[in-house]
Specification:
With 595 residues, the chain is of the alpha+beta class. The chain is built from 20 helices and 13 strands. Helix 20 links the parallel strand 4 and strand 5. It is elongated and about 85 Å long.
């Protein structure tokens, strides 16, 4: 209760406003991976089990790197035919999985309650972050007349309003990021109390929080990175004792890595996730561009996911210029204030692990902690100097840009980020999945979706339909990605050919399931129980541009067990294929087969 009494009024206001801004979470329901998690927890699933059997645990081991199981998933249509059979996404997150077990076992009838549950963790994160800033920024309690000069005041408002928290706070499947960051904050706070006040209980709490974070999500490695920065710049003891103070955390971190590797968790052979433990060279190749994108996203509210359509070279140059100006501007602060050195070192180190995947604002929760602490010190120092008569006019444009980005753009983006996954998925996936004309009468047949918007998410169709209580086909197979013009030609009674000049799928945006460096070659074949795919042509990047799909059932026989559908802008319709030797052209927005 003493913590509650010591909480400043502005902190409650910041927490309340942040929760209001992420409140669109109550509306988004289940999205993407949420359907898999629900089906696994409730045992209502068509998925072949991984080594972690279906249930509360094993929710984040969808692809375990086993070729046999990957082919089973291809055969069901849960992943497309072009998935690399050794791709792996297997993450050890039992603490996060336990919270999802509560959701799907007790609250699944009321999706909004699942989001209330998730927002409770977000509120706890905000609350304990406020306490952490009070402790580390060294401001303590402030008189009301000088609260505006408090570095903790500025830091907490920046953190609370950061748009980078929107998706993790709103998307159920991304809750692991909130939980991991919460435990990072608790670990740092316990360690700081131990080093400042002594007491073995603080050390024990810090170690417990550190382990809980690692078992919530890989993002919690950020705790170790902040602890290292703390030992370098904040700890007041001798150098040897400072390093020895973080050795217990290092031992636990190494033990976690060893156990994780022994249990075969990790990510590999994907174009989106690069595990440095598997491919150091590829990680180093992409690190620079990704790091710049993420840092610019954090400090200047430039969401990578929204800016991905801009020319990469121009975007990179603008981001580099902004970051260079900021770096020059903070040099005096870094030189004079060890807290600033701590926050800067911590946030830069935290950028390292999140560069392992495609840049996205949702990756920045732990980075935002250090950025908020650093900017809080910068704004407090500049304002104090200005009030004291030291008018730092050269710094004024930088300060105004930062204030505009952090207190105008970021809060405006926060509700948009919270709602983004539903806004993006309703038309692209959810609507079409619900409208797919699969009935009790034809669910035994093979549903072939010629052109879903993204073939890598076509597997979510069955999860959505199961959750809605709609009939599900045993096989729901995507053929190509529908974002481009494709030409479909009937070769013979059992075979069709599909060609697309830009490739049958988007290797960049849909590289989640296949490392683009491991492309196809001509005459590569993928055999499934109901069809075989033969790649006929590839481009210089190994991306198939022409492929033949041969089915065991006739493709134009009305009594066949194969039914072809086109996505038709979220209103899937049956496609009657043309006669042998003839072809049709389909676009992403085609409403019929054009016969």
């Amino acid at each position: 209760m003493s913590l509650l009494r010591e909480t400043e009024k502005y902190q409650w206001w910041a927490i309340g406003i942040a929760l209001c801004l992420v409140s669109p979470a109550l509306w988004i329901g289940l999205q993407l991976d949420d359907y898999f998690h629900w089906s696994l927890v409730t045992q209502q699933t068509l998925l072949p089990a991984t080594s972690d059997k279906a249930g509360v645990f094993g929710l984040f081991s969808f692809l375990d790197g086993q070729a046999e199981r990957t082919h089973q998933l291809m055969d069901l249509g849960m992943v497309p035919w072009w998935t690399l059979d050794t791709v792996q996404y297997a993450f050890w997150r039992p603490v996060s999985e336990l919270t999802h077990g509560i959701d799907y076992l007790f609250l699944s009838r009321w999706p909004w309650l699942m989001h209330v549950h998730g927002l409770l963790y977000f509120a706890l994160l905000l609350y304990f972050t406020a306490k952490l800033f009070d402790d580390i920024q060294g401001e303590g309690k402030q008189k009301s007349g000088v609260i505006g000069t408090s570095a903790s005041f500025w830091a907490f408002w920046i953190f609370a309003l950061s748009y980078t928290h929107g998706l993790p706070a709103a998307w159920l499947a991304n809750r692991n990021a909130v939980l991991a960051t919460l435990f990072v904050v608790l670990t740092l706070r316990a360690h700081h109390r131990w080093r400042e006040e002594g007491g073995i209980s603080h050390l024990i709490l810090g170690l417990v929080f550190f382990v809980a974070g690692l078992l919530s999500g890989e993002l919690a490695v950020s705790a170790g990175l902040y602890l290292f920065a703390y030992a370098l710049f904040l700890d007041k003891d001798t150098f040897i004792r400072r390093i020895m103070a973080i050795v217990p955390y290092a031992v636990l971190g190494v033990l976690w890595l060893v156990v994780r590797a022994a249990m075969e968790y990790g990510a590999k052979n994907s174009g989106h996730y690069i595990d440095p433990g598997y491919d150091v060279v590829l990680f180093l190749q992409v690190f620079g561009e990704r790091a710049v994108s993420l840092l610019a996203a954090q400090f200047f509210a430039m969401p990578p996911e929204l800016l991905s359509v801009l020319p990469s070279q121009t975007k990179f140059m603008v981001q580099m210029i902004l970051l260079t100006v900021l770096a020059v501007s903070i040099v005096p602060l870094i030189v004079s204030d060890r807290r600033a050195r701590f926050w800067l070192a911590g946030l830069i180190l935290c950028v390292l692990p999140v560069c392992a995947t495609i840049p996205h604002s949702r990756l920045l929760m732990c980075v935002s902690l250090g950025a908020a602490g650093l900017l809080g010190l910068l704004l407090a120092k500049w304002r104090s100097a200005w009030v004291a008569g030291d008018k730092q006019w050269l710094m004024l444009p930088v300060i105004l840009i930062l204030i505009f980005c952090q207190f105008v753009i970021s809060p405006l983006l926060l509700p948009l980020e919270a709602a983004s996954i539903r806004l993006g998925m309703d038309d692209a996936l959810n609507k079409g999945a619900r409208n797919l004309p699969i009935t009790e009468g034809n669910k035994h047949k093979v549903a072939i979706i010629i052109n879903p918007p993204m073939s890598s998410v076509a597997g979510y169709v069955n999860g959505i339909r199961l959750f809605e209580g709609l009939p599900v086909a045993k096989h729901t197979l995507p053929l190509v990605s529908g974002r481009k013009e494709i030409t479909l030609r009937v070769v013979d009674t059992h075979t069709i050919e599909i060609s697309a000049e830009q490739g049958l799928y988007d290797a960049h945006n849909e590289g989640l399931l296949r490392d683009p460096h491991q492309g196809f070659k001509t005459e590569d074949t993928v055999g499934l129980s109901v069809m075989a795919v033969v790649v006929k042509k590839v481009n210089e990047h190994g991306l198939p541009t022409v492929a033949e799909f041969s089915f065991k059932q006739p493709v134009r026989d009305e009594n066949s067990d194969v039914i072809f559908y086109i996505w038709a802008a979220g209103e899937p319709v049956v496609c009657e294929l043309p006669e042998e030797g003839t072809f049709i052209k389909l676009m992403a927005k085609s409403m019929d087969c054009g016969l």
